Amino acid sequence: MPFTANRQFKKTPRLFSSAKGMYYTSVDGRQVIDGSAGLWCVNAGHGRPEIASAVERQLSTLDFAPSFNMGHPLAFDFAERLAEIAPKGLDRIFFTNSGSESVDTALKIALAYHRAAGQPTRTRLIGRERGYHGVGFGGMSVGGMVANRRQFATHLPGVDHIRHTHDMARNAFAKDQPDHGAELADDVERMVALHGADTIAAVIVEPVPGSTAVLPPPKNYLQRLRELCTKHGILLIFDEVITGFGRLGAPFAANFFGVTPDMMTTAKGITNGTVPCGAVFASRQVHDGLMVGPDNAMELFHGYTYSAHPVACAAGLATLDIYKDEGLLTRGAQFADYFRDALHSLKGLPNVVDIRNVGLMGAVEVAPRKDGVGARGYDLMVDCFNNGLYFRMSGDSLAMSPPLIVEKKHIDDMVSILGDAIKRVA
Ligand code: PMP
Description:
alpha/beta; single chain; four-stranded mixed beta sheet; Aspartate Aminotransferase, domain 1; 2 domains; binds 4'-deoxy-4'-aminopyridoxal-5'-phosphate; globular; seven-stranded mixed beta sheet
C-alpha cells in the first residue's frame, strides 16, 4: 500500500466498503464521516449518480481514443469548460492522469518554454521546503518533504528550495492567513543572487501546502512571490492539486488570494476523485511560446496514453456540472468562518500546539510524543476512525478538508469526535 506502514496496517486494517454523501461505511458496517474528502478530492461528496451514469454511458459509447494524432470531441469540451472557470488568462489546458503527472508536465513545459524563447540556460527549478508535488522524479525533487526524498538518495540536479513559511513561534493559532512571514518570499532574490536569474526556469509552490499539514501562506507572501518571479522572468507555478475546485471557497487558490501564476497544476477534484485525471492550466504566453516552428512540427514532445481519456472527460464534465448547479466552487466561503471557529475551539486541549485554517482546509497539530514524530497523530487517527471520523494525518497534524457539500452539523460532529479523541489519547 502507498504511503502506509504496511506491516502495521496488516495487523489493524481499516477498510471502507461503500460511501454516500459525507459518509463512508466501514466493512464492519459503521458510518464514518469523511473529514478529508477522501484524499482532498471528493469535493461534491460520494456516490454522485450523475457521474456514475456519465461514466457508464461513455464506456459503452467511446471507451478509448488514441491521444496522439487522433482525438475526440469530449476532450475539447472538457478543456473549454475548464477554461471557463480558470483564473483569468490561464485558459490553455493539457491533460494528465494525476497530480504527479501534472507537476512533471508543468516543469517540462517551463523548460521547453524558456528554450523556445531563446533562453536555454534557464533550467533550474525552485521548490520550497515542506512542499509536496507528488512522487515523480520532478515532483519529488522540487518537493520539500525530507522523508519522501531521503529514501531514494538522489533526485534531479539543478533544483533548489526556498524556505517554508511554517513558523509556530510567530504564528501559532493564527486564524486564516498568518500575519508574519511575507518576507520569506524574498528567498527568491537569494536564489537569483546565488544562481543567476538566467539559470532559473520556474518556482513551484502549493498556495496552501496540504500534505505537510495545511500551512496557509502569510499575508502578502504570494503577492511578493509573484512580483519577484515577474521581475526576474521566472515562471511561477501554483500546485493547485488540493486547492483547486473550490477548496478555499473560490474556484482556485489563485482566485482566492488574487494572485495569478503562469501555470497551475490540478487533479483530484477535477473528476470528484472518481476517475484518475489531472490538468495543467497555462497562460496564453506560455502556450503561445511553444507554438513555434513549422505547422507540421510537434510543439511539445510529451504526453500520456491516457491524456484526456474519454471516461475521465465524461466524469470531469459531469463533475463540473454538479459544481456549477450546486454552486460548490464558492460554497466553502459560506462555511469557512464556522469551520475556523469550530477548529479553534479545540485550543487548550491537552498537547494541542497549533491550529491552522483557511477556507475549508484546516489542521490541528499535537505535540510529538517521545516514541517518535507521528506516533500521537497515528493514535488519534485510529481513535477517530473507531469513533466515526476519518481524516488525513500528516505526522502529528490532523488535516481536515470535508467535502464541499458539508453542513454545520457535520463540522460539529467532526470537531466533537476529534476533541474527545484528543482527551482520550492524552
Ligand atoms: N501535488 C499536490 C499539492 C498534492 O497534494 C498531491 C497529492 N496529494 C500531488 C501533487 C500528487 O498527486 P497524485 O497523488 O495524484 O499524483
